[in-house]
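Onboarding guide, step 5: your first structure request.
Type a short instruction followed by the sequence, for example:

Predict the 3D structure of this protein.
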Amino acid sequence: MLAYAAAMLQRGRLTWFDRAGNSLNSVGVEGDYSDFRLSPTGQTLAVSLVDPKAWNPDIWLIDLMRGGPSRFTVGSALSAAPVWSPDGARIVFRTNRNGQTELYAKSAGGGGNEEVVLTYETQHAAGIDTPNLVCSDWSPDGRYVISSVPQQTTGDDLWLIPMVGDKKPFKFLGPPADQIHANFSPDGRFVAYTSNESGRFQVYVQTFPLSDRKWQVSTDGGYEPRWRGDGREIYYLSEGRKLMAVSVGAGPSFAVPKVLFQTRVPEGVTSRRTHYVPSRDGERFLVNTQSSDALPNPITVVLNWQADLKK
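The system replies with structure tokens like these:
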């Protein structure tokens, strides 16, 4: 017997919810959105949408005021993980158009030439042994893009890519665990991230620049943290895929996490997917929501497949 399948897609709808979990409206079409990010103004959404024929994602921009998508990247290669510059003027993204994953930047207006931000050669020279990095945020001062990088011996580490100067990346957080989903606080003084250093994924906050101060934000498992626009709240997903909220006080100090609502995001913790983004005021959340009646990806089984070789 021979079994085969087409692209294993995770179809969903990008749907706005309020803090109580009430569905408001959807954005774009149903599809496999591997990741997505709101612009600093909240008026434009950058999404990575998987082409079911090419099996690779391309980046699209959706005007949330006027509606309608426009294509940002074109080609058969993977282009994903769009991250907005603090002023909303540029977008940096990952692509393997040259065979290995590299970082490129382009005007958010869609025109102009693309700029190579980080080449495979520069990564290799810096000690990155598996160039498959995923950029997750751009520092508020515009100086750094932070990325998770899977290493052969240490798992996923957090690296900083300077956006000025020689742009040689350097490690921010490394072993003994996996570190992913890094996001800068709005004032640039802290980084929230996911780590499994305790044996399960939890949300932590570390000072920036790095120091010996660190806080665990989640209490019963969690991943994919995001900051509110004023830095007074952190959101994350629980192990049961509930959207959680934690108030942030001076110091900083972190309150007991509270449940906002149950989501229907795809299962699994991975650095390569975005499941939700909050509005700047934390009153709405755009969630990649799986349809309750979604059909499974089909698998075709061929009996006596060798008979076709004789024809």
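Each response can be followed by summary notes, for example: The longest strand covers residues 23-31.
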